[in-house]
Amino acid sequence: MKQLDTLREIMRPDEVFPFVHSQKGLEPITDRGVILSLEGVNKSFDGFKAINDLNMAIDAGELRCIIGPNGAGKTTMMDIITGKTVPDTGRVRFGQTMNLLGMSEPEIAQAGIGRKFQKPTVFECLTVAENLELAMHGDKSVWATFRATLSGEQQDHLDKVLTTIGLQEGAKGQAGSLSHGQKQWLEIGMLLMQRPHVLLVDEPAAGMTHQEMDKTTELLNALAGDHTVVVVEHDMDFVRSIARRVTVLHQGHVLAEGTMDDVQQDQRVIEVYLGE
Amino acid sequence: MFRILKGDYGGQILIAIVIAACALVPYLNLYVPASSPFHLSTFTVTLLGKYLTYALLALSVDLVWGYLGILSLGHGAFFALGGYAMGMYLMRQIGDRGVYGNPELPDFMVFLNWDALPWFWQGFDMFWFAMLMVLFVPGLLAYVFGYLAFRSRVTGVYLSIITQALTYALLLAFFRNEMGFGGNNGLTDFKDILGFNLQSDATRIGLFIASGIALILGYLSCRAIVASRLGRVAMAVRDSEDRVRFIGYRVDKVKLAIFTFSAVLAGVAGALYVPQVGIINPGEFSPLNSIELVIWVAVGGRGTLYGAALGAIVVNYAKTYLTGALPEVWLFALGSLFVLVTLYLPQGIVGLMRRRQKEIGHETA
Q: In what residue span(s) does the ABC transporter domain sit (chain A) (predicted)?
């Protein structure tokens, strides 16, 4: 049975073998519009199925929201995409050819998938500008890092990101003294410094005031298009304000997908989530 | 060099003091007559030289603990290995002046009835080779140890315990006579270094100045690392290792590089220490030594580099004084010092001075 599955895998018409495409240092190929795809992904922890036959495709330039009740597998899904967790079965592709399984976390980050965590984790002992500088796209080997200086072009990029996230005022201040909302923006800024293709953003609005939330909405909307943005969020108002397309996860499986209105009318979604 | 020290007032002061000491100490020792109250005895010069090597050792610990967040409780092992490499050179320099008068073998080998020099003693009669080993042996051990530990992402307390086990294992190994490093007694009875008599005042002064220069160069190189982007990555690793991985740095390689460099520094400190104290024995591997040196750094103030050097000198001065005046009190004093610093001075002496400075600033403002 196992051999049959393997054979079936090999015979798939869309199979791209790693030896055909060298994976490192390549841009993802997105001719058909899809930048990130998960197919038949399964992952269980001690018998608990965190991810259960998950299939999802995200288009380049899209702003996608992923919602779901606690334990729906949202964070595990992020972990799988960024290489922190290895799934039991399934495939995860970046672009059409790049196989993310088997790449390490730094390799995936270097390839162009940036992740923002639920809890803002900026480096508090460094200044805002230094935080951005560390995240900057480029050679991150030990020796190159030791010798690194900021070129004019890099400084411009840094200034541009500072303006985008609205922190140009306090650029020389310690990141530890920023407010909660500002830390979230700084973290998004750090993602932008990596020049990523895909931004994975985990609960950006958690613990924010209304003004901060509005600003975050604006920021994420501005980023979509140039970047693909995937947002995991709990706050339904926030989701409504940014989402064009929503995916509902439930028990590690896609329950529904569509516009916010479609999703809200779906009977199953109301049952498991909105109806509570 | 000036760029590295820009804004680092503590470092500037430290280097100025070391340079001044390197100029003043020889003068006070060699040219001021012994009858004058300003005369420095050769004993004191050696003691000061020893403190300088301790300061260098403390720097190496601060680099990994204060900036990288690795609490190494086994840095004494790298210090001792550097010391043994130097000790082996000094043993070979004794030649036929040993008790047994054997020109080929060190005394302890004659005593053990060995008839030839073991392979790992080959080459240590050459100074350059011994110096290479001073750098290479601690560096290699740190590299292999770090490679295994950092790749499997061993961190925190577990890593500290493993480093402690490492130095303890070496302690037991070096105690064995069969290891070929003099067993319990270690290496001693040194005569001269590069042809200079180790007992002479001028050699002692030379070693003191060499220690001072090593401390300055060590400080500058640590500072160069800390002030570079690599240093900021290190601090980021200290605060949030996972996050650093997700922005694309190989955390294990960053740790490995800095840890290995730190071990090499510790080895250099050990190599300068041995000719000044005149002996190296397995006691240097004792876990207590490694813990003590963490206390120096904590007392001085970790994550500042100059604080570590300051702590090493202050605590060791106190040790010299207390073990002379009230020998039974020392260990209690050391223990309570650690408790007090942890509770009331988490930033060490440097933190205290900074706080005072701020208070004075507020009062005048």
A: 36-276
**Which residue is associated with the tokens 């005048």?**
B364
Tell me the C-alpha distance between B106 and B92, whole Å. Answer: 7
Degrees to nearest 5, angle at CA A244 with A242 and A246? 95
Write down the pLDDT at residue A17. Answer: 64
Q: Which amino acid is at B214?
A: A
Q: What percent of chain A has pLDDT over 90?
A: 13
| pLDDT value at residue A266 | 84
| Residues of B contacting chain A (CB within 8 angstroms) | 225, 228-230, 232-233, 235-236, 238-240, 242-250, 253-254, 257
How many Å apart are CA B344 and CA B352, to the nearest integer? 10
Q: Please give the C-alpha separations between residue B164 and each of B60, B170, B243, B309, in angstroms, as whole numbers.
A: 16, 10, 28, 22
The range of the structural domain enclosing residue A116 comes to: 33-274
Q: Which residue of A has its CA nearest to B252?
A: A142
Number of H helices, E strands in chain B: 15, 4
Tell me the CA end-to-end span of chain A in Å, nearest whole number.
42
Name the domain count of chain A: 1
**Which ranges of chain B have pLDDT less than 70?**
1-2, 363-365
Domains and CATH numbers, chain B: 2-364 (1.10.3470)
Cβ of B249 within 8 Å of Cβ of A145? The answer is: yes
Inside any domain, residue A8:
no
Indicate the pairing of strand A34-45 with strand A48-59: antiparallel
A228 within a domain of the structure (yes/no):
yes
Positive or negative, the Cα torsion across B105, B109, B115, B120? negative
3-class secondary structure, A116: strand
Identity at B224, one-letter amino acid code: A
Rounded Cα distance, B231 and B218, in Å: 15
Nearest-Cα distance to chain B for A129, in Å, is 12
Question: Among all chains, which residue has been given the structure tokens 């060995």?
Answer: B114
State the CATH number of the domain containing residue A234: 3.40.50.300
Q: What is the pLDDT of residues B241-260, one digit of tens each?
A: 888 988 889 999 999 999 99
Q: Residue A13's pLDDT band (boundaries 50, 70, 90)?
A: low
Contact A61, A224 (CB under 8 A): yes
Q: Order the strands of the A253-258 sheet from edge to edge.
A: A113-116, A198-202, A228-232, A63-67, A245-250, A253-258
Chain A residues in contact with B253 by the CB 8 A cut-off are 141-142
pLDDT at A20: 58
B92, two tokens: 């070979």
Chain CA centroid to CA A209, Å: 23
Structure tokens at B321: 């004084």
The reply to whether A10 falls in a domain is: no
Tell me the average pLDDT of chain A.
84
The whole-number pLDDT of residue A16 equals 63
> In whole angstroms, what is the distance from residue A189 CA to residue A167 CA?
9
Query: Does any domain span residue A235?
Result: yes
Q: CB distance A114–B230 less than 8 Å?
A: no
pLDDT of residue B261: 97
As to burial, measured by CB atoms within 10 angstroms (0-12 exposed, 13-18 middle, 19+ buried), residue B336 is exposed
CB contact under 8 A, A146 and B239: no
